[in-house]
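ZP: hey, is the 2-acetamido-2-deoxy-beta-D-glucopyranose complex queued? I don't see it on the tracker
AM: it wasn't, my bad. submitting now with these inputs:
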Amino acid sequence: MKTFVLFVILLCLTFLSISKSETCPFSQSLVSGASATYYTDPNAGNCGYENLMGPLGPGNLFIAALGPNLYNNGKNCGQCFNISSPYTNRSVVIMATDSCPDSGYCQRSSHFDLSTQAFDVLGAQSIGVLEGLTYYKVPCGVNGNVKIMMKDGSNDYWTAFLIYNSKVTIKDVSVKITGKSTYTSLTQSSYNYWISPNMVPGSFDVRIESVGGEFIYITIPKVESRKQYETSSQFSVDGCVGTPSGPSGGLGSPSTGASIGTPSDASSLTLYALFSLTILFLVMLN
Ligand SMILES: *[C@@H]1O[C@H](CO)[C@@H](O)[C@H](O)[C@H]1NC(C)=O
Ligand SMILES: *[C@@H]1O[C@H](CO)[C@@H](O)[C@H](O)[C@H]1NC(C)=O
């Protein structure tokens, strides 16, 4: 009887850890009452991705500029949204790549200033302003791993990092100079670069934390203006609705020595341990 009770407890714990690892790293609640306008020069937006079809951009023109509330000083840069329209009964997934500071529509709590390509899916341009839209956040359908670039004009003593090609937004970027023992958190600027004012010549580690609390690490040999690296990982989007299918987890840059350490790694370890124990108990029962 005691063994049976233990077995049931273990089974419950196992299911708990399964459901824990399948929680989307951000809220996907449906928001209604959103509106949209369009603009025609979406390149070089405030999120720092430059040309949308260039190396830092999403590789397509399905983007939006967010009003101050949604833009949130850059915190929603790189977030993707699935927006549905009652005008066409269609939906479109866009990435936030810009801010929309204009007084007027952009000051609403949920307003998207869309590229014409995205707007056209949701309604005719002649309508001007689309009202009554609904949306929810979704992971971005990017290919390969999270990437990092050091800002134009970086030098041995100052740099700023742009994190891009991520499926989810970034909560924190920290730097540890080689030989030091602690990471220092950087400040995210409103133009989406993480400012690192206390660099020294030589190598350093960067720790990138997703909004879901998952970490990606990369070692960079030295500060170099506009130098880009692909890390060896992508953030997990297990449990998210609207996860785009397609290739993911491409090849990492072999020279950078990046690695990943995640809470879900820990919970799957727990899972394996619990499974082994459960099987052990089953064997003992027989
Ligand atoms: C969209 O769907 C609603 C509800 O099903 C329907 O009444 C409306 O005619 C549809 N509109 C278009 C443009 O298809
Ligand atoms: C966007 O949301 C709508 C409504 O929930 C859904 O039907 C559609 O499949 C979603 N699109 C994508 C690409 O996830």
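AM: back. The two ends are 13 Å apart (CA to CA).
ZP: great, adding it to the tracker
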